[in-house]
Specification:
The protein is an alpha/beta fold. It has 19 helices and 20 strands. A hairpin with a 2-residue loop joins β4 and β5. The chain is globular.
Length: 495
């Protein structure tokens, strides 16, 4: 007998201006099933949750819950239908008790004593029945995440949407949350859609997995099928062919012969109470290309943000050219010779390509002659840009925007460049070109710390490699050793 789906979407999509964030998503889940949604950063996972819960209204397509069309309903209306949600950033009242945090929404969805009775039922379900009188802000991070799930259950949820419930947790707390998710499904009967970056968890708990990639559904299947899917591997590890090699030779001097330019010592960085980076230490020598690899959500981008002061670490020390910089403003750090190419590119859409390139000169006070020389060098690196100098940012292709982002980061007295996912969303031929240019920039004297999902490209470029997993460095060595050990490279980087 066929079991009806509890939720399904049909050709679901949403656009923000000219950006198509989600396109033609067909998704379904049966009662009692646990289905995970995975994909690289920016794939559209949280946007999908926002559509299901009414935070955003679909631009096209439909959402059905228990055969009722709920497309375009408000979050309040959808919650009353029986869809509960936890959030990526823990959403609790830190100054109230655990009991009060759950009581407030429970009284909203249940009448009188029914609401109070439901509070204790929910707290038992999430394992917080012994902590009812504790102030929520004093709970461990894991217990706060469980309290967030408890709040999501107060709407008498039949379908539970969990957005990265183990984010920022150390391994022991993650295991406890995995056990909670399993119990909510198998013992309590909840249907669950899970967004989670930690693939070991996804593979353990999921009945099925849906993979999103740049707003589209890339694949769907059992954990075993997804684990072996070559397209999924490419989405996580990059689209380069395995025989990828660069025509230029890398600088083969050993690291010991080079002077140190950047050092991180026991860096601990948080988002709210989420402990993202845990005692991160790494060294970059002058003239090197160092690749920082790891799975989605491991802490790679947070490491770059910590270096530039965009997300300042709570403890530890960062030195650049022998000077401590983690107490400086981002503006001062950039002026000292560090630059960032963000994964989002951050091109000014209403400025021309040439105007985008000129902006750093106004901020850094570079003389006119040096400015002309650097612009000429940028156009030499990227000849395609010279043909687009008067085109506005919103008229450039993805590849042209990426080239512009790299060229812009070179403007000024740059000694060390932080590159965040430069191959993201690019066709293989353009990826190869960007890789060749990265090597040329390095040979011209710029040190590079490279964060890249395309592991094959990153390993081909790197002098040395660090691998980060769950906020901790788990490998420090040469790319040759990592590539030679297939079991280790699969364990550390593979889906």
């Amino acid at each position: 007998m066929n079991v009806m789906n509890i939720l399904e979407t049909e050709e679901l999509g949403i656009s923000f201006g000219s950006l198509e964030a989600l396109q033609d998503i067909n998704f379904s889940i049966k009662p009692g099933e646990l289905k995970s949604i995975i994909g690289p950063n920016g794939a559209g996972k949280t946007t999908f949750f926002n559509l299901l819960t009414g935070v955003h209204k679909p631009s096209r397509g439909r959402i059905r819950f228990k055969e009722e069309d709920i497309s375009g309903l408000s979050p309040h209306q959808i919650a009353r239908k029986g869809i509960g949600r936890s959030f990526q950033i823990t959403a609790i009242f830190p100054e109230l008790t655990v009991y009060e945090n759950v009581l407030i929404p429970a009284l909203h969805y249940c009448k009188g004593s029914m609401g109070r009775d439901r509070v204790m039922e929910i707290l038992e379900e999430v394992g917080l029945e012994d902590k009812t009188r504790e102030i929520a802000g004093n709970l461990s991070h894991g217990d706060q995440r469980h309290l967030d799930i408890a709040i999501a259950l107060t709407c008498q949820a039949e379908l539970l949407l969990l957005d990265e419930p183990t984010s920022g947790m150390p391994p022991e707390e993650s295991l406890r949350t995995v056990e909670l998710i399993r119990n909510l499904k198998s013992k309590k009967g909840y249907t669950i859609i899970l967004i989670e970056h930690k693939m070991d968890i996804v593979l353990k708990v999921s009945d099925a997995i849906t993979v999103l990639y740049f707003g589209k559904k890339l694949a769907e299947g059992t954990p075993e099928e997804i684990q072996q899917n070559e397209e999924v591997q490419k989405a996580y590890l990059g689209g380069m062919e395995k025989g990828f090699s660069l025509s230029q030779g890398k600088n083969k001097r050993s690291a010991s012969e080079k002077a140190e330019i950047l050092r991180l010592e026991k860096i601990n960085t948080y988002y709210g109470e989420s402990h993202i980076l845990q005692d991160i230490s790494l060294v970059v020598k002058k003239g090197e290309i160092v690749s920082l690899l790891g799975r989605n959500g491991a802490g790679k981008t947070t490491t770059l943000r910590s270096i530039l002061g965009l997300t300042p670490p709570r403890s530890g020390k960062i030195t650049f050219k022998g000077e401590i910089i983690n107490e400086k403003s981002t503006n001062k750090i950039v002026k000292s010779g560090l630059s960032l190419v963000p994964a989002e590119r951050r091109i000014f859409q209403n400025l021309t390509l040439h105007e985008n390139l000129e902006l750093p000169f106004f901020l850094k006070g570079i003389p006119g002659q040096e400015k002309r020389s650097q612009l000429d060098q940028a156009y030499e690196y990227f000849p395609a840009l010279k043909e687009r100098v008067n085109h506005k940012g919103n008229r450039l292709s993805g590849g042209e925007q990426q080239m512009l982002a790299v060229a812009r980061a070179l403007m000024g007295k740059v000694e060390c460049m932080l590159l965040d996912e430069p191959s993201q969303g690019l066709a293989p031929l353009i990826v190869r070109h960007v890789a060749e240019i990265i090597l040329e920039i390095n040979k011209a004297g710029v040190t590079i710390l490279l964060v890249e999902q395309n592991a094959l490209m990153a390993l081909a470029l790197a002098d040395r490699v660090y691998v980060i997993d769950q906020g901790q460095i788990v490998y420090d060595g040469t790319p040759e050793v990592l590539l030679a050990d297939q079991e280790m490279s699969q364990r550390l980087l593979g889906v």
